[in-house]
Amino acid sequence: MPKSATIRSGDVRTLTELLRAICRSPASFTNSTKIKNALHSQGGLASLEFHFEDNGINKCTRPMSLNTLKSYANTELERGFQGLNDLRIASADAIQAYEKRSTGSNKRTKAGLTIRVSELEYESEALKKANLILLQALSSAMADINNIRDTADHSLREKRANDALQTMRAIVSLNPPPLDLLSATASIVTLADYR
Fold first, then answer.
1. Which of 103, 123, 140 is at the close of a domain?
2. For a surface tag, which of 33, 43, 54, 100 has the fewest beta carbons within 10 Å of its beta carbon?
């Protein structure tokens, strides 16, 4: 792989890490007009140059053309450019939701309580959807485990295990970002990071 291709691949991954960081903690990015402007469009995201810290490591996104971003995202990312675009939209929504919450409802008034009730209903509906997806994944995993357990042929057992993992990733990807990623090396998720 040429050096420029390796660099662009790294740039796409760094951009993905930035978007996931925004989804995890939108408060850290809410004051950045550069980020907000970049999240408004695919072209704005592609042309973003931004320095940020992720897990104690300083990182930097570098600008590129939208076509370059699409090309490398489709080859480097599991869900391709569509997954990256979904992450861009989720990041913009996370910042907007954080800003709305920070100017949130006054719980001492009837109007404030009405706003708070609608916020809680929305959150409850989102949790119900995520729960349904996770129950579907659990049901699928149980059926796959039984199927794999009863397979005597080693190569067929390995194929079924790989198919089961691919199915699990597909089901989990139905969740909104950043909860759409299933990784064998993922650490335990702290729910407070996503509220």
1. 103
2. 33
Q: Which burial class, exposed, middle or buried, applies to 118 when counting CB atoms under 10 A from its CB (0-12, 13-18, 19+)?
A: exposed
Distance CA 187, CA 55 (A): 13
Decide which of 103, 125, 141 is a domain's last residue.
103
Judge whether 8 and 68 are in contact, CB under 8 Å. Answer: yes
Cα 12 from Cα 71, distance rounded (Å): 10
Question: Token pair for residue 69?
Answer: 């971003």
Indicate the SS3 state at residue 61. Answer: strand
Domain that holds residue 109: 105-195
The set of residues, in sequence order, having a beta carbon less than 8 Å from that of 117 and lying 6+ positions away, is none
Q: What is the pLDDT of residues 50-86, one digit of tens each?
A: 888 887 888 888 899 999 899 988 888 888 888 889 8
User: Other CB atoms closer than 10 Å to residue 45's CB: what's the count?
Assistant: 26
Q: Does residue 125 share a domain with residue 76? A: no
pLDDT tens profile 126-149: 788 878 888 888 888 888 888 888
Same domain for 126 and 179, yes or no, is: yes
Q: Is the pTM of this model over 0.85?
A: no
